[in-house]
Amino acid sequence: MTESFSVDLNCDLGESYGAYQLGHDEAILPFVTSANIACGFHAGDPTVMKKTVRLALQHQVAIGAHPGLPDLVGFGRREMAVSPEEAYDMTLYQIGALAGFVKAEGGRLHHVKPHGALYNMAAVTPALADAIAEAVYRFNPELVLYGLAGSALIRAGQKLGLRTANEVFADRTYQPDGTLTSRRLPNALLSDPQEAIRQVVRMVKEGNVRSQSGPEVTIQADTVCIHGDGAHAVAFAQQISQVLKNEGVLMQTVRPTP
Predict the structure, then answer these.
(1) What is the reported pTM?
(2) EC number(s) for this protein (predicted)?
(3) What is the pLDDT of residue 2?
(4) For position 158, what pLDDT does the model report?
């Protein structure tokens, strides 16, 4: 019997702010199955949140809250010394903000995926991971928690009984421990689209990825993150979507908790 594969393709959206326009939200939505929408802390504002929710619903794309650190200037990519209590509070606050727009537009919130430094900190810091997972669970235990594959955040969600989605990245390189190479280091990003696509296909179908220093890393790919703000983001989204289909991979969202 031929083995079947399926994966969710997600993208970070709603990153514009006021007069500043970022990303290619409307153009990229036809090629993804879920959207992580910024909630105003690292990017986005109320009007952008509303517009992005409407676009996602029009394209029948699953909607997720994308909470980040309160750092617009640094786009949420700089670490901050937040306590677990603060991580809980800011996560719950941002989920609630986006969920308000989703409900007002007749939709349903599907998942939560932390952004940037908050995401990376929660991947390796159990206390922060527990706090974020607790915020998601307290808000709605039926939500899916997206986190770095095999990370502390995934374990925290599973411990509470949340449905979790192990996330892998199309255009990022990996370290031997399964963490992402820091953006501050050389070769953190894969600049060749074909190399990025080959990496994704391998992670989805073979369950492993080559680390930056060489050793293979076992990895589970429930959802693949592509970025929507690059110059060739739309073309890449279209291409990776088509290649996955050609490889016999079914594109579908991660099912929420029954």
Answers:
(1) 0.95
(2) 3.5.2.9
(3) 54
(4) 97
